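Mods, move this if it's the wrong board.
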Amino acid sequence: MAKQENDRDGAIPKDIAALSFEAAMAELEEIVQNLEGGQVDLDASIALYSRGALLKRHCEAKLNAASERVEKIVVDGAGKAQSAEAADIQ
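Not the wrong board. Structure tokens:
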């Protein structure tokens, strides 16, 4: 029942939120392979797709958080670091 509540309110379930980016991507890749293989029944496909969507959202959130932490160093003409500002990586 808690899982359904998480799905409805848009929250990422705790088990997914606890995953590192790499672990979430690995699980997402496995889900894609299973779905593309076509050997999963309809109910399982729906469950896998739903989990995959949550994993994708988690990975996007991790990437966004990481990009906000990335900073580029601004140097003056002599090559000395003057300041740091948020990187424009889009």
